[in-house]
Write a structure and sequence with these properties.
Largest sheet of chain A: 7 strands, mixed
Oligomer: heterodimer
Shape of chain B: globular
Order of helices and strands of chain A: EEEEEEEEEEE
Largest sheet of chain B: 6 strands, mixed
Radius of gyration of chain A: 13 Å
Distance between the termini of chain B: 37 Å
Number of strands of chain B: 11
Radius of gyration of chain B: 13 Å
Structural class of chain B: mainly beta
Distance between the termini of chain A: 34 Å
Shape of chain A: globular
Order of helices and strands of chain B: EEEEEEEEEEE
Number of helices of chain A: 0
Number of helices of chain B: 0
Largest interface: A-B, 25 and 21 residues
Chain lengths: 113, 108
């Protein structure tokens, strides 16, 4: 029944490693997003995909690479993890790009040791 | 100037109180507006959309003033379960911008 699901829920890893977070939505939405929420709780958009095409790419280090194999999935791969990458990463989806409400996944809590 | 600004609070109010949150946004071309609620260690969830004519959903009333680029949320008869962070969200052309949130604690 889960509308937007992310895995894993928790990710603890060492600096320099490469990791991926997966996201899937079963709402039939066309648009998916990745957000980062840091320790100050500020939610910032990272990427947005509409029907598998990248439409928003904020100023994010190129160590972060999103991949959308189909419109129901948007995965996030992070290379060479750094201490500053520690945060909660939320995936979200919406029916129409930007104009409608977004549905969020539970979040992935990434901790870099 | 931040794109979406909110008073971070915290607002500590007794049960039954009325509390109002304000939000201002910088982009006059913004097209749609929302209030989200985020509980501690949880994902943001849509509380309500905000329309120019103002809209109400039970104890919650949202207002939009496009001329002043200002959005408000009023909560009447606060409940303990209203304790959360309230996020003001502004959309401009496929791009949703979140405020930093206003923290509300309702006490018995």
């Amino acid at each position: 029944d889960t509308a937007v699901s992310q895995t894993p829920k928790y990710l603890v890893t060492q600096m320099g490693n490469d990791k991926s977070i997966k996201c899937e939505q079963n709402l039939g939405h066309d648009t998916m997003y990745w957000y980062k929420q840091d320790s100050k709780k500020f939610l910032k958009i990272m990427f947005s995909y509409n029907n598998k095409e990248l439409i928003i790419n904020e100023t994010v280090p190129n160590r972060f690479s999103p991949k959308s194999p189909d419109k129901a999935h948007l995965n996030l791969h992070i290379n060479s993890l750094e201490l500053g990458d520690s945060a909660v990463y939320f995936c979200a989806s919406s029916q129409v790009a930007g104009s409608g409400p977004q549905h969020f996944g539970d979040g992935t809590r990434l901790s870099i040791l | 100037r931040k794109e979406v600004e909110q008073d971070p609070g915290p607002f500590n109010v007794p049960e039954g109180a009325t509390v109002a949150f304000n939000c201002t946004y910088s982009n006059s071309a913004s097209q749609s507006f929302f209030w989200y609620r985020q509980d501690c260690r949880k994902e943001p969830k849509l509380l309500m959309s905000v329309y120019s004519s103002g809209n109400e959903d039970g104890r919650f009333t949202a207002q939009l003033n496009r001329a002043s680029q200002y959005i408000s949320l009023l909560i009447r008869d606060s409940k303990l379960s209203d304790s959360a962070t309230y996020l003001c969200v502004v959309n401009n052309n496929n791009d949703m911008r979140f405020g930093a949130g206003t923290r509300l604690t309702v006490k018995p």
